[in-house]
Design goal:
This protein has 2 helices and 3 strands, in the order αβαββ. It is an alpha+beta fold. α1 crosses α2.
Length: 85
Amino acid sequence: MPSTALELRKALNTFRKRLNASQLEEDSKLGRGPIGSAKDKIVSMQPPPGFGRAIWDELVDKGYLKNDGGGFFQLTGKQWQEPSA
């Protein structure tokens, strides 16, 4: 059964927020030396709980996420478009 547009949008927004929070957490870590001060960029992560695997697979099929394997997903940069009725 296909997911509703509202469920897909909530899942995608939750994924984006969790990715941003993970990046902020990584950026705030102490212990970076003056020579190796390059910041790491988080590009993929496991999806947050609360949504089924089918929703993440559907977001991959629609082109909003890319499956990196091992249960990790990556944003593709595609902007959300409301489905036409």
